[in-house]
Amino acid sequence: MQKTYYDPADLKKFGKISEWNEELGAKFFEYYGKVFEEGALSAREKSLIALAVAHTIQCPYCIDAYTGDGLQRGITKEEMMEALHVAAAIRGGASLVHGVQMMNKVNKLDM
Amino acid sequence: MIKSLHKRESELANSKRQLEILSNGIFQSGDLPKFAEKISETGQFPLKAKKLEILQVNVGYMCNQVCSHCHVDAGPDRKEIMTRETMQQILKVIEKTGAHTLDLTGGAPEMNPNFRWFVEEASKVGVKDFIVRSNLTIIRANKKHHDLPEFFKQHNIHVVSSMPHWTKGKTDKQRGDGVFDKSIQALQQLNAVGYGMPGSSLKLDLVYNPSGAFLPGDQASMEKDFKKALLEDFGIQFHNLFAITNLPISRFLDYLIASENYEDYMYALVEAYNPAAVANVMCTNTLSVSWDGYLYDCDFNQMLQLPVNSKAKHISDYQTELLEGRTIAISQHCYGCTAGAGSSCQGSVT
Ligand code: SF4
Ligand code: SF4
Asked: Ranges for the Radical SAM core domain (chain B) (predicted)?
């Protein structure tokens, strides 16, 4: 049995997902490709968003893919790290903002 | 400043050792197909040279920089320099080949003591496109080179210069401390005499090589980003950006091996293999002349000491009939020319 859940080589096999459901697989990859095209946002901006989201969902495949993609696009490590801090701030903030709920509850119940 | 592989007496200073590395390991075990096998899949083997259009002349391996990715292994410690006699032989050939482009490279071509003489003589021959690959910092390196922009202008030279990034950090990491600031000053000087300005016939193009073990991104979008950043930050303008893939030879190969990126990089090149790029690889219309007058299919083969498959091995033996239609000498480094949109000294090929 495989000793780890993740194998970097599996990233290259992503396309094989379609083999077990051609229609949905094809639709997904078409959608995916379209999403990353230049649009109102540049492909570069989208790559940075993808990198930040990849860290938020902690997907090692996506981190690998979008770090490489960023380097290819000339995105600097400073830009990458700032994008990650945006993700971290939202993620941390999302925990902390629930503190208001905790405070409301405490204020209501506590004498 | 780092030293060249030659100065360090690295085993990779030996081109035979490089060729061995490129043929052994993953290519010997069959994990990856050899370049010849790959191009055979689409019936493109053997690669044949067509009509000569570009004569690329390497006037010497001496350079004021020692870039970490340099495929020439150039540097101040390299003493191989073309003589005036070889230049004279080349001038004779240019006249009879009908090649439309003359492309001077190095090292830093301007460091050859006969550089200006050669440019003056060659520009009389009347090639359509006369390129000098200038590393930019040479213009700032020494007082005697400060007037190069005017000299280039006088001879209507097409200047092609390297710039791995529009930020100082990434540029200096690849090309050495202080290179970015000097390159910016040199580009401003070139702009000041009219180079690179919109609509100007004084052509100024930039070459982008990735500063690491990854492939270049899309040439058009990189060009857009470069133009925006250089204009906003420094008021600099240029015409085209050529995105060039680093080939796994010489100092870049040394870096790949030392950083344990070699295999992954070769996998990436093979995976990005684009059969449509094969028809336009630059060796099909280019001939490369080394500092000592020998002929190669391209500057990369020159560095690997893979001579042309022809009886005419030296510029003094040049005969169109002996060189046109020759079989190109290939090895696994050629995957660098066929990855993605393809790569040549003029950037993408598809
Ligand atoms: S890449 Fe160009 S500038 Fe850099 S060391 Fe090599 S020849 Fe010189
Ligand atoms: S490395 Fe040289 S010989 Fe090989 S494909 Fe590229 S241009 Fe041709």
From this structure: 47-276
Q: Ligand 1 atom closest to Cα of B137?
A: 3
pLDDT of residue B209: 92
Q: What is the reported pLDDT for B142?
A: 92
Structure confidence by residue, pLDDT tens digits, B262-286:
999 999 999 999 999 999 999 999 9
> Which of B229, B234, B209 shows the shortest CA–CA distance to B219?
B209
User: Residue B279 belongs to a domain with what CATH number?
Assistant: 3.20.20
Angstrom distance (rounded) from CA B209 to CA B69: 9
pLDDT at A13: 93
Residue B2 has pLDDT above 90, yes or no: no
Residue B247 burial by Cβ neighbours in a 10 Å radius (0-12, 13-18, 19+): buried
Reported ipTM: 0.79
Is A68 within 8 Å of chain B by CB? yes
- Only one residue has tokens 């077990």, namely A20
Q: What is the C-alpha to C-alpha distance for residues A47 and A33, in angstroms, rounded to an integer?
A: 12
CA of B247 to the centre of ligand 2 (A): 10
Distance from CA of A77 to the nearest CA of B (A): 9
Complete domains list, chain A, with CATH? 13-109 (1.20.1290.10)
Expressed in angstroms and rounded, the spacing between residue B64 Cα and the centre of ligand 1 is 8
In contact, B339 and B218? CB cutoff 8 Å: no
CA of B286 to the centre of ligand 2 (A): 10
Q: pLDDT digits over B85-143, tens only?
A: 999 999 999 988 889 999 999 999 999 999 999 999 999 998 999 999 999 999 999 99
Whether B344 is in a domain gets the answer no
Q: How many whole angstroms separate alpha carbon B223 and alpha carbon B203?
A: 15
**pTM given for the model:** 0.92
